[in-house]
């Protein structure tokens, strides 16, 4: 009977720990057995000028966060070209919260660095390049986990969700930037 209770206790503790790590409430950073893996690259061709794309990315952070994003983005501290922001994402049936610094280099780069989340290390970058069709947006990053192979397995699971979330955000950025660019082009044409 004691063995069954011990197994049940360990199982409950394991599930609780997993839930806290997924939610970002428990952010283990042991610095032991750190392994890194790339995130991306993801490439998006956007039919909009680079300035428009940059504004679509930066405005929820540097300006007023739109009501539609309030459940996903919470700016904790705001400067001229630097913010501390909490991102809320559904993952594994829970709401995962990551806290990141976001630094803006107008008009070509946006840098993200994880402060608190389900893994101890993430750095990411959006690079915006002008081309004949508008803007090429490239996403690249690096995710790091501790505890050798065990952390590497956790990192693979986190990376899948992380990249899907970023890809979804980039699709939204593409759609909004193209909408804004088309609206501006219609306005210019009607003048």
Summarize the structure.
This protein has helices at 2-23, 50-62, 148-190; strands at residues 35-46, 73-78, 82-91, 94-105, 109-116, 121-131, 134-145. The chain has 191 residues and is of the alpha+beta class.
The end-to-end span amounts to 82 Å
Helix and strand element order: HEHEEEEEEH
Overall 3D shape:
elongated
How much beta, percentage-wise? Answer: 35-45%
Helix/strand structural class: alpha+beta
| Major sheet summary line | 7 strands, antiparallel
Keywords for this entry:
single chain, alpha+beta, 37% strand, 3 helices, 191 residues
Characterization of this structure:
The longest helix has 43 residues, at 148-190. The protein starts with a helix and ends with a helix. The chain has 3 helices and 7 strands; from the N terminus they run H-E-H-E-E-E-E-E-E-H. With 191 residues, the chain is α+β, with helices and mostly antiparallel strands. The chain has a 7-stranded antiparallel beta sheet. It is elongated, with a radius of gyration of 20 Å. Strand 4 (94-105) and strand 5 (109-116) form a beta hairpin. Helix 2 (50-62) crosses helix 3 (148-190).
């Amino acid at each position: 009977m004691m063995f069954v209770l011990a197994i049940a206790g360990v199982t409950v503790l394991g599930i609780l720990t997993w839930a806290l790590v997924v939610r970002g409430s428990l952010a283990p950073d042991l610095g032991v057995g750190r392994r890194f893996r790339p995130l991306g690259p993801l490439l998006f061709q956007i039919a909009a000028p680079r300035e428009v794309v940059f504004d679509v990315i930066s405005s929820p952070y540097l300006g007023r966060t739109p009501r539609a994003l309030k459940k996903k983005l919470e700016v904790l501290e705001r400067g001229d070209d630097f913010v501390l922001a909490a991102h809320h994402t559904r993952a594994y049936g829970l709401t995962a919260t990551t806290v990141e610094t976001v630094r803006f280099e107008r008009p070509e780069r946006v840098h993200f660095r994880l402060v608190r989340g389900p893994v101890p290390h993430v750095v990411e970058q959006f690079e915006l390049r002008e081309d004949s069709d508008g803007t090429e947006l490239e996403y690249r990053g690096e995710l790091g986990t501790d505890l050798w192979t065990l952390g590497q397995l956790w990192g693979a699971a986190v990376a899948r969700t992380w990249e899907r979330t970023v890809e979804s955000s980039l699709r939204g950025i593409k759609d909004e930037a193209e909408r804004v660019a088309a609206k501006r082009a219609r306005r210019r044409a009607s003048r």
